[in-house]
Amino acid sequence: MTLLRDISVGICVMLGLAGLPLDARADGITHFPADIARSCWGGRAQMYDECGSQQKILAQAMAAADVEGKTVLVIYGAEWCIWCHTLEKYLAGDSFRFEYNLEGDQFALYELGTGASSVTAAELEAFTSENLVLAHIENQYSPDGYDVLAQTGADALFAGGLPFVFTVVDGAVSRVMANPSELKGLEVRREGFNWYRGYNRELLLAELERMIAPTDKDDS
């Protein structure tokens, strides 16, 4: 059994390094963009399509959310943004050891204790899978990344930091994720040479629940 498990893990790692489409992950979460052209910036992009239309990505995410009865969660960011990758991995249920590919550089970080969180990685992944469609909208190189903010009305709420995370309902921004400076304890980090980036899962889940809760308009 141990040998079979090790072989399975090895295959998963190789497939991950091969750059599978984001929506082909085994975690059951619907991701967009569904795939990224190998010709885009030499194939360095793993999560954000730096060359394609971001408005198309949002449209695909909204269509999928309508079919699946879920809410679109926009993660407006960039390939170089470590917090963008970290958030995606937490939502996907990763834990302890996190492997990153940032613009062609690969490295791993190990999780720090995240305080008195009662929420497990699996619970966070299950919530994401059951309730959200993730739309990764690229900030820096794409031809129309900022247009997505203007299209949804999120541009008026964008303060400049990445990731900028918000939900989209009926084509418009609904709620914005709290800034870590406002929600103390959400981010877990260690500075210096041996640095780490992570989230308190309990606070992150509570924030996601707030973001998809019905608004006063929905209740009317």
Give your account of this protein's structure:
With about 220 residues, the chain is α/β, with parallel strands linked by helices. The protein has 7 helices and 9 strands. A 5-stranded mixed beta sheet has the order 1-5-2-6-7, with helices on both faces. Strand 8 (about 185-190) and strand 9 (about 195-200) form a beta hairpin. Helix 4 packs parallel to helix 6. Mean pLDDT is about 85; it is low at about 1-25.
Largest sheet: 5 strands, mixed
The number of E-state strands comes to: 9
The rounded Rg comes to: 17 Å
Structural class computed from helices and strand pairing: alpha/beta
Widest sheet, order of strands: 1-5-2-6-7
Whole-number mean pLDDT:
85
- Please state the oligomeric state of the protein chains shown: single chain
Could you give the distance between the termini?
56 Å
The backbone outline, from C-alpha atoms, is globular
Total of DSSP H or I helical runs spanning 4+ residues: 7
Which spans of ≥5 residues are poorly predicted at pLDDT below 50? 1-26
Estimated share of beta-strand residues: 15-25%
Helix content: 25-40%
Order of helices and strands: HEHEHEEHEHEEEEHH
